[in-house]
Amino acid sequence: MPMKNLIEQKITDTLESNYMPYAMSVIISRAIPEIDGFKPSHRKLLYTMYKMGLLAGNKTKSANVVGQTMKLNPHGDTPIYETLVRLTRGNSALLHPFIDSKGNFGKQYSRDMAYAAPRYTEVKLDKLCGEIFKDIDKNTVDFVDNYDGTLKEPTLLPTTFPNILVNSNQGIAVGMASNMCSFNLKEVCETAIAYLKNENADIGKTLKAPDLSSGGQLIYNEKDINHIYNTGRGSFKLRSKYKFDKKNHCIEIYEIPYSTTSEAIIDKIIELVKAGKTKDITDIRDETDLNGLKITLDLKRNADPDKLMNILFKLTPLQDSFSCNFNILINGQPKVLGIKGILREWTAFRINCIKRQVAFDVEKKSQRLHLLNGLKKILLDIDKAIKTIRDTEQEADVIPNLMHAFDIDEKQAEFIAEIKLRNLNKEYILKRTNDIDHLEKEIADLQATLQDEKKVKNIMIKQLKEVIKHYGRERCTEIIHEHHIEEITAEHLIEDYKLKLFFTHHHYLKKIPLTSLRGNSDQKLKDDDAVIQEIETGNKADLLLFSNKHTVYKLKIHEINDCKASSLGEYLPNLLHLDKDEEIIYIVATDDYQGHMLFAFDTGKIAKIDMAGYATKTNRKKLANAYYGKAKLIYLTYLGIDEHKDLVAFSSIDKVLIFNTAGVNGKATRGSQGIQVLNSKKGSTMVSIKSLEDVVFEDANYYRTKNIPATGRYIKQEDKMREQLSLLD
Asked: Among the options 22, 50, 109, 120, which is catalytic?
């Protein structure tokens, strides 16, 4: 049957009249974040929770929040709950979550880990939201009607810090998209402060690089990062963090790029194994639990974990890219902005918020001042006020009579009329009117602030410093410079095996595989030579050799020739090209640069230096200033991770102090002179340190101290004799 009344219309006209309004609605009202860092769905949800009293109150069921949010958001309970899930602490999607949560909210790093239904989970606003809603009730932002005109909701939230840069945000609109990476809150606030002080400040000095909630490592390329900072577009590379479990011979991956999931990584690795592209993996397991993400790769016994991970970084999402597109709605118009552009827009927005808040305070205080000025007038004749009210026959005439009697306006008269009879006394009125001078000064200061943008910026700077103080945290994502990334080299092919190092008094170093030692353990040494250190390690470890010239020499153990127990080994002065008066005094082997070196000086000070301070990305053979050089070194030793020792310090005046190394705080700087342990008395010095097991005391606790520094106690005569006898032995 033929259709009637058809109207011909060009497709371009149809698109313009029907599709364009939809496209604009998605862009403006749904997908693109605004300068406060929120999309409308985020803002409606958080504001609903704020009005529910969930900033300071107890948690409530998520279903309750979802139901209340539907008064502002008409798009259904499922999208609202999905929005809530992403904003929670439990989901781990945000660097600084807005919602404190209880229950299963899934995980950002998992594709298949489903979140629980809203009837099972509980939520409240995180403390950080106090900065998001600061002074919102003081006319800082505009409010509009909700979709049915029954409630008011804010168009923006007056966040006191550039939240748009602090949390990741992704949106896909029609014909455009937005992808905001997150930055460290402390770095963002410091950058905002620097910008407020000087718009030409170098933001790269304070804003080091993006910081993602998933952690991992960011491969820093200065050119790429600067391009993102300047244009708002670009990408950077992220890679996973892992550790090698030597005991179980497996790799444990515990942080992955923000842009991927554990399931995607596992699927790709399985694909590689099936394709025969890697033969070192015998099993792969997802061991993620309440303690966090964990992907375990079981390896063959001869597999090289670092070489394998380099292959996996190249072929799987264990290394991935994050594409940035800083597309933000500014006054209803989408704009792609660089970091300075975002800070400029946020600064203008925040200045307006503070000016509106100050104007609000001026109005409220002025109203209060006006009422108190009226109250001050009746102080001149309280009896007249009472008589005026008492002599008035009609209630409606009380206000006009007071206005006429004291030459005050209607609001002042209303305020006076509402005062209780018991308060119509001189003392009460004086107390209330004493605030007049204070109020006048406050109003003058506030009005001066309104006229001076520099004062407004100082308020912003103060608020930003408070945010840093209360909410600043260390980076989640480690920064690794691109030129430090290790590629597959010949070193990955080095055979790894267990061995022992022997260091002798005459500066010989012997490297003997354990398999060789089993057959012959008798060491050949020169006459009057002796082994002073014996270390068990691996062929891929590094060897640090400390000299008396405050220098540490670094050797790759695999570069040292193997020898047998029947040979003398390597002569260190020749191997290291030592100066004539330079001697090696201590050696330590490490494959992870964990633990501490302990240096004791005759000044009574001890430095506990983090081994990480000796790690270098390049193959440097020699590091100067390996330890403090302005005092005489009398003792040094290596302490493993969480290892603590009881040590005995002896002074030049026979004082003894027993202390534990746990009381010595670690230092990051190699040249640190340390902290005082043994106090000097009568010009005494610390002459030696021994391990507690190497001394013989009748009552060791007599010399022990819990707190350092301390002066110690004079050695008992019987203990002194024991020490002398032990030296003779």
From this structure: 120
Pairing between β-strand 605-610 and β-strand 666-667 as defined by DSSP bridges: parallel
Asked if residue 13 is part of any domain, the answer here is no
Strand partners, 587: 545
Contact 85, 105 (CB under 8 A): yes
The alpha-carbon radius of gyration of the chain (Å, integer) is: 36
pLDDT of amino acid 492: 46
| Domain termination residue (choose one: 136, 158, 180) | 158
Judgement on whether residues 575 and 660 belong to the same structural domain of the protein: yes
* Residue length of the chain: 729
The backbone torsions φ and ψ at residue 76, rounded to the nearest 5 degrees and listed phi first, read 100, 155
Residue 40: cis peptide before it, omega within 30 degrees of 0: no
Q: How many domains does the chain have?
A: 4
Residue 288 sits in a domain of what CATH number?
Answer: 3.30.1360.40
- pLDDT digits 0-9 by tens, 479-506: 998 877 765 444 543 557 789 999 999 9
Amino acid occupying residue 487 = E
Is 154 a member of any domain? Answer: yes
Quote the CA–CA distance of 407 and 400 in Å, as a whole number.
Answer: 10
Find the helix or strand (DSSP H, E) in which 389 lies. Answer: helix 382-391
Parent domain of 69: 38-158
| Residue among 487, 540, 491, 493 at smallest CA distance from 311 | 487
Residue 519 is predicted with a pLDDT of 63
554 plus 432 within the same structural domain: no
Burial class (CB in 10 A: 0-12, 13-18, 19+), 431: exposed
Neighbours of 471 (CB within 10 A): 18
Burial class (CB in 10 A: 0-12, 13-18, 19+), 30: middle
Q: Where are the alpha helices (DSSP H) in 553-694?
A: 572-576
Looking at the whole model, is its pTM more than 0.85?
no
195 is catalytic: no
